[in-house]
Amino acid sequence: QVQLVESGGGLVQAVGSLRLSCAASGLTFSTYTMGWFRQAPGKERESVARITTAGRTYYADSVEGRLTISRDSAKTTVYLQMNSLKSEDTAVYCCAAREVGGNSYNNWGQGTQVTVSS
Questions:
Q1: pLDDT along the chain (118 residues), means of 10
Q2: Which of these, 42, 50, 58, lies nearest to 92 by C-alpha position?
Q3: Is 84:67 a contact under the CB 8 Å cutoff?
Q4: ∠ CA(104), CA(110), CA(113), 5° rounding?
Q5: Which residues, 6 or more positions from 52, have their beta carbon under 8 angstroms from its beta carbon?
Q6: How many CA atoms lie within 13 A of 75 on its CB side?
Q7: Can you tell me the distance from the alpha carbon of 107 to that of 87, in angstroms, rounded to the nearest whole number?
Q8: How far, in whole angstroms, is CA 78 from its chain's centroid?
Q9: What are the φ/ψ torsions at residue 29 (nearest 5 degrees)?
Q10: What is the DSSP letter of 17?
């Protein structure tokens, strides 16, 4: 059974930093692309960043240069380092896993709240 457990959310002032973690279990971590998504109140869920099995990273334009996704295979954990936070980054952040060759993310965490005060 695949489990993804996020942690590290909280309340932070604008221009501050947070690091989110997503601990994965029940899967062969090296064969999954890992992604971070977020959903703000009243808005649709959006992709924030993803990292492939080869370590390639992709970011939404809105976070490019401020957020960094990384993965640690030994710890089967994916991270999202968030710097220069803005109020519009306030959202529930979820991690997700997509198996190599798959078309969609089939495994999701429960999410962690990030609130940025201006």
A1: 97 97 97 98 97 97 98 98 97 97 94 97
A2: 42
A3: no
A4: 115
A5: 33
A6: 10
A7: 28
A8: 7
A9: -55, -40
A10: -
